[in-house]
Design goal:
It contains two helices and 13 strands, in the order βββββββββββββαα. It has helices spanning about 170-175, 180-195, and strands at about 5-10, 15-20, 25-30, 35-40, 45-55, 60-65, 70-80, 85-90, 100-105, 110-120, 125-135, 140-150, 155-165.
Amino acid sequence: MVNKEKVIEINCQQKKIMIDEDVFVEKWIFPNEVFDCNIYIASNCFLKTRSLLDLENVHGNITFYSDSFSNLDLKWAVVFSGKNDLGVVNVLKGEKIKSDIVIHATGNGLASIKTLGDILKEARDSVFKEEVRILSLNNQDIRCLPQLIVKTNDVVANHNVTVRNFTVDELFYMALKGISLDSSKKLLMDGFLNSILIFKEGNDEYK
């Protein structure tokens, strides 16, 4: 990674975290007890992260407050186990903000992912994107409850959720290559998770 941002870790047990410089979040720490973590991104600062998260029995909320000219670039690949209830909220409270949240989730546990984009009237000329993709394994129960509240017309805002399982065509193709069913599912799951974590050579940005 060529960028000069500060590399940090975030412990979600903290109730209030101030981001007043450009940072790359290398590690996220989730407490065992219920948490409510509020992260404030100051004007002209960005928070970027690419993280593979193994979450077990996680219960809590993370709320991002984005100020004018800030940039939130969050890519999480999440594997759930146990029972989980995770909320991800993004409040845009200034102008010309860029917010891009992408979550790929799978696992064998029970999970509820609640996402909320709250775009205030001050967030003119901002761009908000939120995408949650869920890969269902063995018909386990992973749910996503998305909400988007937009209080200004002068903004580009999109969010979407998709839920899928392994397709017959995918598994058939892998079988033609002589790959067992269990190995095929593992390879496809790894590809699903890693697709948002790959660093593009010759470019300072991630996919």
